[in-house]
Design a protein that fits this description.
The complex is a heterodimer of chains A (122) and B (154). Chain A has 122 residues and is of the alpha+beta class. Chain A contains two helices and five strands; from the N terminus they run H-E-E-H-E-E-E. Chain A has a domain of 84 residues. In chain A, strands 1-2-5-4-3 form a five-stranded antiparallel beta sheet, with helices on one face. Chain A starts with a helix and ends in a 12-residue tail after the last strand. Chain B has a single domain, classed as Muramoyl-pentapeptide Carboxypeptidase, domain 2 (2-Layer Sandwich). Chain B has a three-stranded antiparallel beta sheet with strand order 5-7-6, with helices on one face. Chain B has a two-stranded antiparallel sheet with strand order 1-3. Classes of the chains: A alpha+beta (122), B alpha+beta (154).
Chain lengths: 122, 154
């Protein structure tokens, strides 16, 4: 009896591992989003120039949902965390969820230095 | 023909663009006021402030992003969906209708402080985000060095 239970448990583990291996594989998936190349700051952007050239990304859909869920918990008392909007941030990466608008994430880079500078303001 | 001020699905009017005899000018993204639909209380506040400002200063106030028509998500902003947020440019010493950061020599700290104090006189102000530590009552927030962000209560 004990032997058959151990066999069943081993089989179950094997099946679970096999399924896990099948579910996750390193691959690249398409996503939806927008980007803007600009100069100056996001608060008052100007045309990009040789001395100031940045990019901001704004992505939505399943990838934004995955990022949002990986970044919890929600931030309280921050700009934008009102009217049912949930905000999550890690350094210069921001994500949000609103029941009506769905998920979004944003991030951005200084294209001259490569530095991460965020993709949104309050 | 009288031009009708654009109104969105929430009943919010667009901030009048290029009005004559007022103490403000408009800017922002997207252009032509597409991001300047305001809650009526914010619109009234802006009109009161600009009217009062004319008594102090000849320079015009630079009013920027408020909200998109219908309050749809505003790319590049975490807020600006309710019509209760507005971005205002800092005052420049040379009076140009252009952007300036608080680190620039053209930044007029005294005039900007006076303008922010004028906003704070109104009880519907919830918060003003701005990074100049010399200006009282403002709340620091990332990337708020070239404008201040006013939010009114809901």
């Amino acid at each position: 009896m004990r032997k058959s239970l151990a066999t069943i448990a081993l089989l179950a583990c094997g099946i679970a591992l096999a399924q896990g291996a099948r579910v996750w594989a390193f691959d690249y998936r398409p996503f939806t989003g927008h980007y803007s190349i600009y100069g100056g700051g996001l608060g008052d952007p100007v045309a990009p120039s040789k001395t100031s050239k940045n990019i901001a990304f704004w992505i939505t859909g399943p990838v934004a949902k995955q990022m949002f869920k990986a970044m919890g918990p929600d931030l309280k008392d921050v700009c934008g965390a009102e009217d049912g909007n949930h905000i999550r941030q890690r350094a210069e990466v921001s994500c949000s969820f609103h029941p009506k608008d769905g998920y979004h994430c944003d991030f951005g880079f200084d294209l001259i230095t490569g530095k991460s500078i965020g993709g949104s303001i309050c | 023909m009288v031009e009708i001020q654009p109104k969105d699905s929430r009943g919010f009017f667009m901030l009048p663009q290029k009005p004559e005899d007022t103490a403000y000018y408009t800017h922002g993204t997207p252009i032509r006021g597409a991001g300047q639909y305001a809650d009526p209380r914010l619109l009234s506040l802006l009109m009161m402030i600009e009217h009062r400002w004319q008594g102090f200063d000849n320079r015009k106030l630079g009013i920027g992003n408020i909200s998109l028509a219908g309050g749809t998500p505003y790319k590049g902003h975490q807020s600006h969906k309710s019509g209760r947020d507005v971005d205002i440019r800092l005052l420049r010493k040379d009076g140009k209708e252009d952007a300036v950061t608080r680190f620039d020599g053209q930044y007029d700290q005294e005039a900007t402080a006076r303008l922010i104090a004028m906003f704070f006189e109104h009880p519907i102000i919830k918060v003003i985000y701005f990074n100049d530590p010399m200006i009282p009552r403002v709340t620091p927030s990332k990337r708020h060095d070239d404008h201040f962000h006013v939010t009114i209560k809901d």
